[in-house]
């Protein structure tokens, strides 16, 4: 969740949504994202809305404390119940992200989930995920989460090489994420993800292969692999600007992606979104699929973004300001926008093209259709799906996904 917030119109003090946002809600899945903004240290590449204890000291007092954070976030879940009214939908997915959610006590995460269950109910097959730093959990913690209703966990591995982790300012010990997978399995988690990053300055092809080997050896049923994006304002961007570490280029990222596709597919993990591979349909991240398919989700927490029925809004960033708004009986929303039909059409193309099944050609304007025919000729789109009315990326198309999307939207 990037730290910069967009502009937008004010959010009503009670958080009320226009009637158009709730029309037809029963036909759309509903998810919850619960943001925990705390980290023990700040990773050099991170641009998310997160805070260390040092960064919070003196900027919010008790309101910014993680000790009472669960109760504050539960207040927003209760606000969501009021805003969504008699919405009959049980929640399909819950995703606790950060930050480092597992800096909170396991009981805090379970109580946050319990509030969603109490206010909305959970679907019988609900997916309930938390992100976890490998050094912030152990067998007892994971067992408490599983007993409390979590059934999926995502560990931030990033790399198996110490020198790569050092550039990223990751503090966990190489080998620890793999042990976490075993501990999660022992606790009863059927679905376990490992997050990897490729393209870190100083990383070699062999380093990347070693990271993939280590991840696959741990036996997760889901792997996410992301190209490193150097965000302005981060410590890593400053180090690159000073010449302390080199910057990789797009060709390196493409080579690493091809290595990932080769090794992951050989191990039985199939891609279903440009940066995500799973062993089966059941192992896919359903929560992220809500985002990619434009479904409804409520994002609770500082800086969290939400979307319901074409209305998108975002919360104030600072934990102290967030807590103060809720303590005063006000929505913590900082701004919102009501998407036009054209906005929603464009977003469907932007997001759904990244999926294995692609996007319906019926969404494209004449210029986009012409661009799709060129992309097909250039080997960026698959012939079979195209003949069936969908634009679906080839492997080469995945490498150039951003460019293909721009052409189809234009």
Automatic annotation (TrEMBL):
Swiss-Prot/TrEMBL keywords: 4Fe-4S, Chaperone, Cytoplasm, Heme, Iron, Iron-sulfur, Metal-binding, S-adenosyl-L-methionine
Localization per Swiss-Prot or TrEMBL: Cytoplasm
MF terms (GO), sorted A to Z: 4 iron, 4 sulfur cluster binding; coproporphyrinogen oxidase activity; metal ion binding
Stored InterPro entries: Aldolase_TIM, Coproporphyrinogen-III_oxidase, Elp3/MiaA/NifB-like_rSAM, HemW-like, rSAM, rSAM_sf
Predominant location category: cytoplasm
Any matching Pfam family: Radical_SAM
Bilayer-crossing regions: none
Gene3D superfamilies named among the record's database cross-references: Aldolase class I (3.20.20.70)
GO cellular component: cytoplasm
Annotated ranges, domain Radical SAM core: 24-270
Gene Ontology biological process: porphyrin-containing compound biosynthetic process
Domain of life (superkingdom): Bacteria
Family to which this protein belongs: Belongs to the anaerobic coproporphyrinogen-III oxidase family. HemW subfamily.
Functional summary from the UniProt entry: Probably acts as a heme chaperone, transferring heme to an unknown acceptor. Binds one molecule of heme per monomer, possibly covalently. Binds 1 [4Fe-4S] cluster. The cluster is coordinated with 3 cysteines and an exchangeable S-adenosyl-L-methionine.
Name assigned to this protein: Heme chaperone HemW
Phylogenetic classification of the source organism: Bacteria, Bacillati, Actinomycetota, Actinomycetes, Kitasatosporales
